[in-house]
Amino acid sequence: MLYTQTLEKLHALRLEGMVQALEEQRQQQDIVSLDFEDRLALLVERQWLWKENRGLALRLTNAQLKINSATLEDLDYRPSRGLKRAQIDQLRASQWVQQHRSCLITGPTGTGKTWVACALGHQACRDGHRTIYYYAPKLFRALESAQADGSLLSLLKRLARASLLVVDDLGIASVAGKLYRQFLEILDDRQGQGATLITSQFPVGQWHEVIADPTVADAILDRLVHNAYRLEFTGKSMRDPKNPTDKHP
After folding, report:
1. Are 143 and 185 in contact (CB under 8 A)?
2. Degrees (nearest 5) of the Cα angle 141, 145, 148?
3. Measured between alpha carbons, how far is 249 from 153 in angstroms, rounded to an integer?
4. Over the stretch 219-243, which tens digit does the pLDDT of each residue have?
5. Could you give the C-alpha distances from 56 to 49, 71, 163, in angstroms and in order?
6. How many whole angstroms separate alpha carbon 55 and alpha carbon 48?
7. Distance from chain centroid for Cα 74
């Protein structure tokens, strides 16, 4: 009876990891050889792991990464890509996210920009950072819809609160000038508050042509380029079925 009441109270306190560990301990005959402090430590450790795993799962769900399975451990460093291990090592610990810096990934289509961006987003989620991923055309459509239905302020606040904002494939579609001005507002709100990761098929030097409005382009680049990490991919598309080394990004 006492044990049942203990379980009920643990459930009420949402200590699900501790409940699981306690149930397992009751099935282990040799557990009695451990003293109270050791058994308690095992219960607390399980609860901590349960909370961490639950938090990570929630952050990944909210991030909506295009490739949720992408991780830095699986990166392909083939020389033809132009991807340097030292660069990734600088980004691995997510200190750049804590420092509210930018990361700009450019290169031809199919070279794995999205995969690496999602891997960095996944790592940020692992490290406890709230992350939001947007395919660039969908972000601009969301801004346009929010402007029309009056929810723009709410969307801007949501984007501003994210520790890491990932905008994938900037410049892939034609965008109205007013939407780039709203994008500038997003970057301005995030200045000193969050990190931003941008991928694009266009080299940074061509972004003025992509954005079209020189004044807005200057302002956007000013907020992104200074003190940014730059990954410039090279080589053929990794989706090419004729590429014998094609495996994963």
Report:
1. no
2. 145
3. 37
4. 999 999 988 999 998 876 665 555 5
5. 10, 14, 14
6. 11
7. 16
